[in-house]
Design a protein that fits this description.
alpha/beta, Rossmann fold, 2 domains, eight-stranded mixed β-sheet, 10 strands
């Protein structure tokens, strides 16, 4: 990368060099980080995907770290409007379980790394990566984080850099780090996705586009196809509908539950 993005020139310990694959023009769009635990609960998974998908439809770029769990769900929801900041060099695919999505992002989205070649991910590099994710982003959303976790460090970085910080509300015994930030008034809760999106529209002066399309997926699922048939035809749409609660997988078949 010839020039370090202006957002990263302002952070403490800015990167000396960056390497990339994909579409650099995504750096010029409004950017929101969505990060969190590698083991999100079903509620967190569902909201992550919905948030990322809706932000992408507004033209917002979702920034995350390519890891399993919250990161990859955010990338999938926002694709192709997404940036992944990697803890390893870009000649290495990590984690292997995310290979397909990472390879797609290398072409249609944007991958960024501080390392040129032959560098594997390890704990210290994840800490460095986190500062770039937060530094690039105009707003930070931490979906779920336990105390003393890597995700909790994102809360601290966002606080130190004075980035607008949002979290999901959780039960008292869950996501203790985000709950603590809420209790201390250091973060705002996303209680209603539509209301949050309205704030985003106002902040970035983007248009809220309402798309009305014939739901081919609904028609297909009325006959209760197998999971494999539905996934082969619709791919990640099936994942999205399942997270929205519009379909249920029962005995290997897709059962439509949404509104007609």
């Amino acid at each position: 990368m010839e020039t370090i993005p202006k957002e990263l020139q302002k952070i403490k310990y800015p990167p000396k060099e960056l390497f990339y694959q994909g579409r650099l023009e995504l750096l010029d769009k409004p950017k929101i980080a969505i990060v969190g635990t590698r083991r999100p609960n079903q509620y967190s998974r569902r909201v992550t995907y919905i948030l990322a998908s809706q932000l992408s439809k507004l033209g917002i770029v979702v920034v995350s770290g390519g890891a399993i769990g919250t990161d990859i769900i955010a990338h999938r929801g926002a694709f192709p409007n997404t940036i992944s900041v990697m803890a390893n060099s870009l000649d290495i695919v990590y984690p292997k379980s995310n290979r397909d999505m990472i390879q797609k992002m290398a072409i249609e989205s944007l991958l960024i790394s501080e390392s040129e070649r032959g560098v594997t991910a390890h704990p210290k590099r994840f800490i460095h990566r986190n500062r770039l994710i937060i530094g690039l982003s105009d707003i930070v959303i931490v979906i779920e984080a336990d105390k003393n976790s890597g995700s909790a460090r994102n809360l601290k970085i966002a606080e130190e850099t004075r980035k607008p910080l949002y979290v999901l509300p959780h039960r008292l015994d869950e996501s203790l780090a985000t709950n603590e930030y809420l209790e201390q008034g250091k973060a705002k809760a996303i209680y209603n996705i539509d209301h949050f999106l309205d704030e985003v529209v106002e902040r970035f002066q983007v248009s809220k586009v309402e798309k009305v399309e014939k739901d081919e997926f609904m028609e297909f699922c009325k006959n209760s196809p197998t999971y494999e048939e539905a996934f082969q035809k619709f791919g990640d749409v099936l994942f999205e509908k399942e997270l929205y609660g519009e379909v249920e997988i029962i005995n290997g078949r897709v059962i439509w539950k949404g509104k007609q």
